[in-house]
Amino acid sequence: MITKQETIQQIIRTDITNGFVKPGQKLASIRMQSQRFNCSLNTIIRVYQELEMQHLIYSRPKSGYFVVAEEALLPLLQTKRIDFASAAPDPASMPQADFRQCLNKAMELFEASIFTYPDPQGLLSLRQEIVKLFQQQQVFPSAQQVFIFSGAQQALHLLSGMPFPNGKTNILVEQPTYWGMLEALKTQRNTVIGIERTPDGIDWVTLERYFQSNMIKFFYTIPRFHNPLGTSYTPEEKQRLAELAKANDVYIVEDDYLADLETYSKADPIHAYNGASHVIYLRSFSKVMLPGLRIAAATVPTSFIPLLQRHKQAADLSTSVLSQGVLEIYMKSGMYSHHAKRMKSVYDCRMKHLRETAQRLLPKDCFYTTQRAGGIFASIRLPDSIHTEDLVKRLENRGVDVLATDKHFLSTFPKLNLLRLSIIRTDEQEIEEGIRIIAEELERAQYTSSSPKPFFWL
């Protein structure tokens, strides 16, 4: 839930950026604002202090608060775009003061470690906290099985290049999939095989054949809130994946990057389905915390520990102690769970509004597939006759940024004509306006094409 203080702050900020309060003009007094918003004086004081930290206003002793000079406001006064393309959190949604406090505390608590090369596997105290976090997802490793990486990208790169206990060499990936994984694979010499994943799931007959006959070292999958599709596997599908992997001695690299945003209490990861012996469970913190901290964690089967320790140490000696310290303090203090709960509520509301708006505003002859709420991504499939780059450009010219998904496919795999939508940097009003514009452009495209109508995947 967005707090009253945050709501008041956004209203005053909008007053400034829309020019209702001019540069150099004095803001209403704290007492007047408290009467306007029916809140305490302390609430307005905190709002003004936050806006001052954002360099939107400044205080004059005994005179009050004033809007900063026009030059400083210029970036805010420019036309705001509707950003369906970004996958990084909005800085305005991050509790930066809390992060700064944790950083200062980490400097104090981990001062000695800064001058050494710590365990390449990660600080033991942080790994113990990660174990507690994983247990909430029905994943029960020991601290010795947990590795801390310099971001999920490093984990994917190392896993792609190192040998696995099954002695196999080929890597299987969903198509489409996370583009960062495909970039990591480009730097390796292993054979990469793609298997199509649609909103209806995966071709189980083909998957089983690949597992049995194609020397698959591991299968990389995003079972929850897929990027870019936005869809999730059912519990039955996750159990089937775990059983197939174990039966065929194929490992699964489970990228559970949005586990913190799950709204369905019974949505366990693949690792929870008797898959501990053949599942590497990977968690990122970039969508809930600051991407710049570059922290991710994984639990691996015991047989992987010595080899992965060597590869991790060879890659970077150790992950940043300060980043690890900040995350540990943030988790131990309860700030992490509180912030994750808040962001889950915010993103859940946005995704529900996106689905409702799409069903109401997109062309009536579109076909929809709906599922439980949650996540940050949705996708639109376009007829092959529509040139995706042209549509993206037309939307860009109308102030709406979306993402074409070409880089989410292997170069050798047939590409679907997809647009990915992200709600991570939008609000409900922007979602409404953005979908309306997309609907108009899709409808315009239908009049110039005799191809089948687009499908909306959500």
From TrEMBL:
This protein's record includes keyword Transcription: yes
Keywords: Aminotransferase, DNA-binding, Pyridoxal phosphate, Transcription, Transcription regulation, Transferase
Cofactor: pyridoxal 5'-phosphate
Protein name: GntR family transcriptional regulator
Naturally occurring in which organism (per UniProt): Cohnella lupini
Domain HTH gntR-type: residue ranges: 2-70
Pfam families associated with the record: Aminotran_1_2, GntR
Family: In the C-terminal section; belongs to the class-I pyridoxal-phosphate-dependent aminotransferase family.
GO molecular function: DNA binding; DNA-binding transcription factor activity; pyridoxal phosphate binding; transaminase activity
